[in-house]
Amino acid sequence: MTAIEVVNGTPDSGDLVEFRTAGGPRPAGIPEAEFSGAKGTTLLLHRDGGRTLFAGLGDVAQADGETLRRAAGQAVRHLVRLGSEHVTLMAGEWSHHARALVEGAILAAYQFDEFRPADARRKNSLRTVRVAIDSPEALVSVRTEAENGALLAEVTNEARALGNQPPNRLTPEALAGRAQKLAGAHRLTCKIWDARKLDREGFHGIVSVGKGSAAEPRLIALEYMRGSRREKPVLLVGKAVTFDSGGLCIKGREGMEEMKWDKMGGVAVLGAMQAIASLKLPVSVIGLIPAAENMLGEKAWRPSDIIEIYGGKTVEILNTDAEGRIILADALSYGRQHYQPRAIIDIATLTGACVVALGQSRAGLFTDDEHLAGVLAKAAARSGDALWRLPIGEDYDELIKSDVAAVKNIGPRWGGASTAACFLRRFTEDVPWAHLDIAGVAWLTKEKPWMEAGATGFGVRLLVEAVRGLSSVPA
Ligand code: BES
Ligand code: ZN
Ligand code: ZN
User: Fold this and answer.
1) Atom of ligand 1 nearest to the CA of 354
2) How far apart, in whole angstroms, are the C-alpha atoms of residue 57 and residue 264?
3) Atom 13, ligand 1: which residue's CA is nearest?
4) pLDDT tens track for 430-466
5) 109 pairs with which residues across the strands?
6) Distance from the CA of 391 to the CA of which of 3, 247, 432, 439 falls in 20 to 30 A?
7) Known catalytic residue: 401?
8) Which are the contacts of 374, defined by CB distance < 8 A and separation ≥ 6?
């Protein structure tokens, strides 16, 4: 764990990071051609007792929290590679973004190296991150923000570490074990359904998706009830397919290894529950994580199967690669009936179509509820986990009508992210609900200057902020 300190004035040891905008004051004696302050640029200078890394923020009017988060991250990654142990972020006029600065620094220092041979592990030397401000009266508030940021980023990194685990190690059973351990460490109640119990209680969606794998499915419930007595809980539901081969409708071999990250929705819910419990927020939240591996063993589910989801709705299966919506349907139905939530947010690496629509920088947001849309937009701005609203309407719902069951599990080729969202909506009835499709943002195939490749932890901080917003807990 990296230690976080907030100090007044400039420390005289360790390495410094200074932020500059384009057109703003420049480092003394440095010509503009060498460092202009453009976004994403850096300049390293040596001084007595350490180094100073200048990081460009670009246009001052556009320097928001995410800009500061990335600039701090890029700077820290740069310095850590040079062996820095103590880094001071000169927050100055940016001290109102202290939380983002600390988040950026801690997120940047994470690396997935536990299976590398010892001599191939990059040394993570970072021991302290300091935030230096120049107004002593802000010390207390900046410290609170910095500590908040550190906690959220550390939890996000734990979620990334879990997400990067390979599927032979992180089976649904192992994920349930992690959830149980987490519940033990915090004031959380954890309930686990194994395959037999799932079958007995009518969770035929989760059972069907998991049948082709030797690794049995699980349903995980984490309960955190610290809101006022009358307040119904917020329900978070996350898809955790520990590996998605596509089942009998098998995927191509190109890129199939990336489907170990098909669990990142569930992992985000786990992380959010951990953060909410650690922060002791006065809210009531339930996290539901259906977990299964989608494989093609002799017991595997097949196209043309008809499955009865928890609560009785039937689904005609036409493609075994559209499995996420099936396990989510069970969890949404159960969660709605059992907890009578005030609002539901689900999060899933659900469709390639969403990646086609939005690329790899924003997740898709689908909802009919304007209040939820507003809360999520604010949560996105605060967390830096960017969203873009996409449509769900009757026109899309038409496309998943089935002749033989209540609904079918795929629509036609076009509009796949919206038909998938419509499928989920059928299991939420009239509870305010939002769906987040994180297929494009849950992992990075190539590193960014501010972040290692692999699981991003997208959604952990977003969900925490959304729960805060829904419960009107001051941030
Ligand atoms: N896990 C995939 C979606 C996915 C694709 C996530 C690419 C991240 C990157 C999901 O289970 C899936 O395979 N969806 C199909 C649905 C189709 C069969 C209707 C898809 O998107 O192709
Ligand atoms: Zn699939
Ligand atoms: Zn999937």
Assistant:
1) 21
2) 30
3) 321
4) 999 999 999 999 999 999 999 999 999 999 999 999 9
5) none
6) 247
7) no
8) none
